[in-house]
User: What shape does this take?
Amino acid sequence: MDWQLKNDYVLIHCGDHMNLACIQDHKKILSEALMKNKPITLEADKINSIDTASLQLLLVFTQEATRRKIQWEWKAPSFTFLYVANLTGLKELLSLPKE
Amino acid sequence: MPINTNQFLQTFVDESMELLQESEKTLLSIDIQSVNSENINHLFRAMHSIKGTSAIFNFTSINLFANTLESFLGQVRSNTRILTKADIDLLLKSVDCIRTAIVNIKNKNPINNGELSELSTIFNEKMVGMPHAASDKIGSLEKPIERKTQKFGWDITFTPSRNSFQCGTEPSRLFKQLSEIGKLSIQAGIDQLPEFHQLDPTECHLNWHLKLYTDAPQKEVENIIYWVEDKENVCITPICTEEKESPIIEKKSTVENKTTQKNAAQTTSIRIETKKIDSLINITGELIINQSKLNQITKNFNGTPLTDIYETLDLLETHSKELQEKVMRIRMVPIEFLFNRFQRLAHDLSKDLGKEVNLIIAGEQTELDKNMIEMLSDPILHLMRNALDHGIELPAAREKAKKPSVATIWLNAYQKGSHIIIEMIDDGAGLNKEKILSKAISAGLLKENQGLSDDEIYKFIFQPGFSTAERISDISGRGVGLDVVYKNITALGGKIEVQSKMGIGTTFRLCLPLTLAIMECQLIKISGQIYIIPLMNILEITKLDIKQFNKINDRTRLYHFREQYIPIVFLQEIFSIPNFSVDIEKKLLIIMEVNNQLIGLVVDELLSQQQIVIKNIEENYEKIPGIAGVTILDDGKAALILDINAILDFASNPQLINNKPEFSEKN
Assistant: This one.
């Protein structure tokens, strides 16, 4: 996972794998992105595997962005990501698209 | 560490019992002519709570029955049903039934689902005139009725422990497996999620509520879940639905039985007000400050005056005493837990006896040692039964005596110094002194009327087998009861006073020490060993007068004390202290009173009187006849506390004593 500052928004690349082994780094990256106080786009198209801990992190992150009134959106979430989010009952809470 | 729900079972038992007791109190207070809606709300809330908590522990039959009662009360609450006296009796019976089930859970016995089912059916018929789903469910637990149209699944509550991610639990994998055996609906709970900056992402703050519509038996579901998660974090209950084909239901809820047998807590518990804990924390803080102050003083000590040390030691002493008092107060619980039981007794018994009685309870917030409260239950029960059966007259007789047809019994408690006073006052017929005296004479307890005082006359009613009742009932009148009351109260270190006036009523006043754990005592020395006697048993201490000493045989000695002969005992004999010789002239005699009997104990030396903390000897060693416990003295040595009742037994039965003394009555 990493982030890039674009002209008027922050682009977060979620990467291929999101799991417990790298979750602390991911939190740090998400925290840095929040600090920019700009609209955020979460690019999730490459996610091949994701665990519940990472979904929980993304959920808390999106809640925090909303709380700070920072606009955020998903970009092309992968099938795997959608499948696991649905399986854990977090899909709607993450505001992921139904299809 | 996963959360262990077993540890909360005792809380479930305690809370449910409290709710049931409150419900019973509320039901008994309902005036059928004008039902107070708050009373119904109170009952409704109690059943709702029991329903919820029993579900957590998988006590399905209780859960479903509480649900039925909740529905019934809901109808009353919404004014679609008028509450009748019969309904109240039925609700009281239901409270009893749930209470029995909870006691069974506590004692690891199976729950009698049949009783719950029967009552449930009655309520359902009352509600809709036909069987209700809830009662059917209970019935199905009892009898495996072939109900091909019944449809089932499993309701699963999953609350992973915080470290479950770190332990390798992956909920998505678990849900995937479950979804392979049926249709799974998942609802994630996010109420425990922290804010982003507070989140430790390796910890799990989510929980789930799953509904698995499946034909799979519970065992299969359990096998999947328990493979990846501790049982304590999961709650599985059957659900009923009209959407799916029915699975086969087992004869009884296996979860319920298993949980009942395995998880029932062994220990009793006590609920403590937070402010009591806070005051303990405060005082502990003070002690720590004292300790560091002492450390500081000793570190910098250069032989200068010891004023600082003395001041700090004084403070330490004050705080230690305060801590002791506060810790003792933790065991104190309001006596209402005991008193409330008697509302029901008065209600049921007066109905059975055809009497009308109003029980007025006062001082129910008075606090008493929890152990004491449990031990007081029987004595007060006997007093109450006695008052209702013999003290209170039938309404016609009361009217004839120009008394209100509804009798009153007052149950009152209050603190007086270091004692608790419990009074039971009735406005019944009162004690018949003439009858008591004549009975005492005919029973050989008294030769003739010797001009006894009222107190002395009333003492006869506490004699075993003594009864003036003309009629023996299953309630009282057999002469068993009041002697038990006397025995129990004196065993607790208490006293009973009786006041009575013919035609006006009777007062029984129990005076009890605040706690059983601390006692005012006399320290004595016998054969170089320190022993302890409870101060309450000591009547008098006198120098042993050889002229009053009468030796009947090797084992029996009597002492002439104020116009009567009392047995005297030598502790050396009882405790088999070898080769002791008694130089009577130099001894002291402690006259003690136990169960209305006097006994003299010969002692070498009288030491101080002090408050002692009683420690149980049986827990660490074994029961020693004649010893009630042990305490630690100021110098750190242990001293034995004498069991005066047992000493009296030894005095009454000298054959129990094996040690033969080297007796030298005179030098």
Notes: Chain A touches chain B at residues 20, 23-24, 26-27, 30-31, 34, 51-54, 56-57, 59-61, 63-64, 67, 84, 87-90, 93 (CB under 8 Å). Chain A has a mean pLDDT of 90. Helices of chain A lie at 23-35, 52-67, 79-87.
